[in-house]
Design a protein that fits this description.
about 550 residues, mainly alpha, globular, 23 helices, single chain
């Protein structure tokens, strides 16, 4: 191995364009518990923002005059901002290095703007201002949140990443429970009014937003000031896939003609689907799906034009939009496989979030009348159930790394997803609503796993210089199934199950188990890279690539 390095170094002195390995390879040091705690603590604040939004924004919209039918379209801000903002922030943070490091500037900027939006939201005088604040809030939260996923991949060795993402899951669970319950706590323990005159937001909601915004800013600031980041040079020395990633970039094969042809296919398909929805007077939410398909066409046409007017060697210099789309089409194979896992998982979650209230109130409490006592008792109980699964997730997050060490990371995710799937399906068989907290144990286990295990697996397969952008692209496979579920799930229920929402939970349970099966087919070699014992093999592979590149240039000269 040493002779190979000498040979490569001699050639490097004559050919500056040869891919170079770091001067010395270093084992990335493990962090202790409190270091991991500090670097993940900011997620507690981010989850405060999400939980306050999820629990109260529909209430704010209705207070300001929105009808029930308008609420889903107002909520489209959440998935769309994630779809747009996360890959952009990932791309930018990959190329950032300054006094605050690589990811932390985005934590701080996102936290400041999110806090301002949280403070302003409960003072919105009109519906359109509240909707606009939701867009700003979601965009800002995504600016802060996206780099946190890459942050763990940067700062932890592969052997500790499952622990790092599980710590994030722990803070997500704690933040969700506390923030969701804040208005209730303020009303019942501090006598803050939960009612207000028509068109005004209740004080309990206002004060909850003030408290939550403060917690968000303080928690993220704590992570910024208490955690250091490795420099790009240190990351290059730590990571055994650096040269592999550079070699992969040089071998990309999607041509301008392929981009051009695909652009016309996507635009044509989107236009036909849009026309069919209009002609058949179908559910307006299907336009989200059809217009999204159409929009992917011009993006690829732009890439075709950029690539057609450049040389192959300039592919990495064609700008942010091209780079993000090109990276999407050249994802690692195992990332494609994980995308299938994510699709099943998040479609199931969205089915649960949308339909649990309707399922429990109609199936277990026997009422679909929103003015009835039974319906409101059921809706209140769903709030408790949702808080409970987040609490169970916080507990499960402690044990997931231990289980992964014993049975492997893939089988751990399979077991966890089956727990969640069985939990959702059991809603059909449990008739006593007071026992519905039991299936939420399984749902909480699955939720903790969804928030940690796929990211731990993903981070082991990504080149370090593209960790942020690929984490942002990975978010596509969270957002797209949610948009698809919002577009078609209602049609499926009405067409196959006579509109009974309990079957949406059964569907979600089946899809969770499909995710558990799909993860077993993720490439084993990639998963094994999370084991530090395999890093020597990666170093040998890297040396081979250097020698191969050197040989090619020698032959050309």
């Amino acid at each position: 191995m040493s002779s190979n390095h000498q040979q490569a170094n001699q050639q490097d002195s004559h050919q500056a364009v040869v891919p170079q390995a770091p001067h010395s390879f270093k084992q990335q040091p493990e962090l202790n518990f409190w270091q991991i705690f500090n670097m993940c603590f900011g997620f507690l604040g981010i989850q405060f923002g999400f939980a306050l939004q999820n629990a109260n924004v529909s209430r704010i919209f209705q207070t300001l005059g929105a009808s029930i039918d308008e609420i889903p379209i107002l909520w489209i801000a959440a998935p769309l901002t994630g779809l747009l903002v996360q890959p952009i922030i990932g791309y930018l943070s990959d190329k950032t290095w300054g006094r605050l490091g690589r990811r932390r500037p985005y934590f701080l900027i996102g936290a400041i703007f999110t806090t301002l939006a949280i403070f302003i939201m409960p003072h919105s005088p009109t519906l359109w201002i509240a909707a606009g604040m939701l867009w700003i809030m979601d965009a800002s939260i995504n600016i802060a949140m996206e780099p946190f996923r890459a942050f763990v991949g940067d700062n932890l060795p592969k052997s500790q990443r499952t622990q790092g993402y599980a710590m994030q899951s722990f803070f997500i669970g704690i933040g969700a429970v506390v923030a969701s319950a804040l208005p209730y706590i303020l009303t019942h323990f501090f006598n803050v009014a939960n009612t207000a005159p028509a068109g005004e937001i209740a004080d309990s909601v206002r004060y909850a937003f003030y408290f939550g915004g403060t917690v968000l800013l303080l928690a993220v600031t704590w992570t910024v000031v208490s955690t250091r980041e490795y420099s790009p040079e240190e990351l290059a020395a730590f990571n055994a896939k650096q040269i592999d990633a550079e070699d992969e970039t040089l071998s990309r094969i999607r041509s301008a003609k392929k981009y051009q042809f695909a652009s016309f296919v996507w635009m044509g398909l989107g236009a036909l689907l849009t026309f069919a929805i209009w002609a058949q007077d179908l559910d307006k939410q299907l336009y989200i799906l059809s217009l999204g398909i159409f929009a992917f066409g011009p993006l690829q046409l732009y890439c075709a034009l950029r690539l057609g007017n450049s040389q192959p060697a300039e592919r990495h210099k064609l700008g942010m939009v091209f780079s993000v789309v090109d990276d999407l089409f050249h994802m690692p194979k195992a990332m494609h496989q994980l995308a299938i896992v994510q699709f099943f998982s998040w479609f199931a979650l969205f089915a649960m979030w949308i339909y649990t209230t309707a399922a429990v109130t109609s199936y277990h409490f026997g009422s679909s009348d929103v003015l009835s006592q039974a319906y409101n008792d059921g809706a209140d109980w769903v709030g408790v159930l949702f808080a409970s699964y987040n609490g169970f997730a916080a507990i499960a997050a402690i044990f997931i790394p231990m289980l992964a060490k014993r049975i492997g990371i893939k089988l751990t995710h399979t077991v966890n997803m089956f727990c969640g799937g069985i939990g959702l399906i059991s809603f059909f068989f449990i008739k006593d609503p007071s026992l519905l907290w039991l299936p939420m144990i399984g749902v909480g286990i699955a939720w903790a796993s969804i928030l940690s295990v796929p990211y731990a697996m993903l981070s082991g397969m990504l080149p370090p210089q593209k960790m942020g952008v690929y984490m942002g692209i990975f978010n596509f496979f969270i957002v797209i199934p949610q948009l698809l579920a919002a577009s078609v799930l209602g049609l499926v229920l009405n067409g196959l199950f006579d509109g009974q929402p309990i079957y949406a939970l059964i569907t979600g349970g089946v899809l969770m188990m499909c995710a558990g099966i799909a993860v077993l087919f993720v490439d084993q070699d990639v998963v094994e890279q999370n084991n530090p014992n395999n890093q020597s093999a990666a170093m040998n592979r890297k040396t081979h690539l250097i020698t191969k590149a050197t040989g090619k240039l020698t032959n050309k000269s």
